[in-house]
Amino acid sequence: MIGRLNHVAIVVPDLAAASRTYRETLGAKVSAPVDLPAHGVTTVFVELDNTKIELLHPFGEKSPIAKFLADHPSGGMHHVCYEVDDILAARDRLKAQGARVLGDGEPKIGAHDKPVLFLHPKDFAGTLVELEQA
User: Fold this and answer.
1) Read out DSSP for 16-52?
2) What is the pLDDT of residue 61?
3) pLDDT score recorded for residue 131
4) Cβ contacts of 57 within 8 Å, gap of 6 or more
5) Is 47 a known active-site residue?
6) pLDDT, tens digit, for every residue of 78-128?
7) In whole angstroms, what separates CA 58 from the centre of its chain?
8) Who's near 121: CB < 8 A, 6+ residues apart?
9) pLDDT at 23
10) N or C: the chain end with fewer CB closer than 10 Å?
11) Domains and CATH numbers, the chain
12) What is the DSSP letter of 126?
């Protein structure tokens, strides 16, 4: 059901510093920051040959990752994102198998302008999983 790994998301306390580290120290191609007010985050994508790293920083007081950063002041891995061909079919299959879909269970448009869903970390070995329609 899941396809390729789309990205690994890392919450960072300083987006500019993290971007510099990936660009200058690791020699990666790093995008410009993009504010996503509807999601409460600012994102930067680090492009790799086989996937992406998504650097996340809170945007606004109601950011869903603000608590994560408060609990992990140095930042850390937030979620992994897998591609699926049909997000509704994937959701229905997972729910039928007892997996919990976060929120209202309906896909939202994510950072790549594609439908996404998040799955409860307690159902996936302690890892928050994002599904993105390919």
Assistant:
1) HHHHHIIIIIS--EEPPPEEETTTTEEEEEEE-SS-E
2) 81
3) 98
4) 11, 12, 13, 14, 15, 33, 41, 42, 43, 65
5) no
6) 999 999 999 999 999 999 999 999 999 999 999 889 999 999 999 999 999
7) 13
8) 127, 128, 129
9) 98
10) N
11) 5-133 (3.10.180.10)
12) T
Distance CA 31, CA 80 (A): 19
How far is residue 52's CA from residue 7's CA, in Å, rounded to a whole number? 5
Q: Distance of CA 39 to CAs 8, 17, 21, 121, Å?
A: 17, 22, 25, 19
Strand partners, 48: none
Nearest Cα neighbor of 81 from 12, 45, 129 is 129
SS3 98: coil
Q: Which of 110, 49, 33, 106 is nearest to 79 (CA)?
A: 110
CA torsion angle 110 113 117 121 (round to 10): -40
pTM of the predicted structure, to 2 decimals = 0.93
